[in-house]
Amino acid sequence: MEKDVWANLHPQSMCPAFGGLRVLTRIDGARVCLVADQGCLYGLTFVSHFYVARRSIVAPELMNVQISGGTMIDDVRAAVEKIAEDPAVTFIPVVSTCVAETAGIAEELLPEKAGNAVVQLVRLPAFQIKSHPEAKDVAVSTLLRRFADFDGMRREKSLLVVGEIFPVDAMAIGGVLQRIGVESVIAVPAADLEDYVEAGKVQACAVLHPFYERTAALLEKKGVRIVSGNPVGASASGQWIEQVGRALELDMETVQRVAGEERRKAADVIEKFNNLSGKVIVAGYEGNELPVVRLLLEAGLEVPYASTAIACTSLGEEDHRLLSMLGTEIRYRKYLEEDMQAVVEYQPDLVIGTTSLDSFAKEQGIPAIYYTNNISSRPVFFAAGAGTVLGMVAGLLGRRDVFRKMKEYFTTLP
């Protein structure tokens, strides 16, 4: 099928507000007040239970009559006051899914406190925010701007880690940082608002995912040193540890020793998969796809095409440059049609993609798995992450003939 017949109508991402809700609803004592129409309320209530934190969100009834009548801000204030009647609620994020000029929500007209709860407007308009990972960035940067103690004394050898990661990865990062001499580690998104307060006191920040642009810019403006990249694969693991060591001015002899150990551990794991061969396409909407591609290339696999829902950012520049040099075609702000065309063009042995792309690939007799549930729900950092990801990929590639036989069977039926 010719590429120009595809209509670019379907950018692939969850609703941007979903990313913000992942951050906000997981905060202890939080109760979200959603400023949106009833369709948004229905969909986001579903995902807040299914994907986020099994917590309900509250919303005033906002329809055209409130917008045209100019009573919306009064209705929102009334909803906030109602939520605040619950003494267990200590934080009320007011999430607006529309632009201020349309919804008429003026931040200065919302109370800073209601009952026992602090109140904070978080704007997540889908017209402006293109993907749900970037909405996480908006939520985190908004919380830091409101709560972080940037005026207090900085803690020596203290690091802020920014990124929503698998719990085993968090433990691995903590263990490595302790070995190189880091004395204090705070991670956001966090379940405790106090972590956002303490985040303002760190010396450096490791931004694990390239879409946290607003957060990184805010921290850098406040004098926090920024470390980009992440410890995925052998080379990057060692490099990341050394960058953290330099940012915190740690004992570099110790840092380089630990970096060398972790680099060798990851390299040994990757070497166990040196018989891997095949062509893989990676196409997700989580914003953390390129480091996974980097690991697959390091293991000797061919990745001719990779795509992501986020924009190309300076925080991901190194991955972009390396992958491009190794021959991977990279698409940012991708469309489903572009991913489908890549499957047709490259005929991969495995697709790690979105649900729609996976269905399309399986129709072609190509093994395919959902990126979010199979990559984002597994450890990917250091040696343990490399073993987990490559072990799964090896198993899938080993079954590629099964998919082709199934396709042949069903296409030959009368």
Helix residue percentage: 40-55%
Total helical segments: 18
Strand content: 5-15%
Q: Name the poorly predicted regions.
A: none
* Biggest beta sheet attributes: 5 strands, parallel
Within CATH, the superfamily of the largest domain carries the name Nitrogenase molybdenum iron protein domain
Please report the first level of CATH classification, the CATH class of the largest domain: Alpha Beta
Overall domain count: 3
Using the alpha-carbon principal axes, give the shape. globular
Strand element count:
13
Structure description:
By secondary structure, the protein is an alpha/beta fold. Helices cover 47% and strands 14% of the residues. Strands 11-10-9-12-13 form a five-stranded parallel β-sheet, sandwiched between helices. A hairpin with a 2-residue loop joins strand 3 and strand 4 (117-123). Helix 6 packs parallel to helix 9.
Brief account:
This protein has 414 residues and is of the alpha/beta class.
Q: What layout of secondary structure does this protein have?
A:
Blueprint: H1 16-24, E1 33-35, H2 38-52, H3 64-69, H4 72-83, E2 91-96, H5 100-103, E3 113-114, E4 117-123, H6 132-147, E5 158-162, H7 167-180, E6 184-188, H8 193-198, E7 204-207, H9 213-221, E8 225-227, H10 234-247, H11 252-271, E9 279-283, H12 289-298, E10 302-307, H13 317-325, E11 329-331, H14 336-346, E12 350-353, H15 355-363, E13 368-370, H16 371-374, H17 382-397, H18 400-411
Parallel strand pairs: 1-2, 2-4, 5-6, 5-7, 7-8, 9-10, 9-12, 10-11, 12-13
Antiparallel strand pairs: 3-4
Helix pairs in contact: 1-2, 1-6, 6-9, 10-11, 11-17, 12-13, 14-15
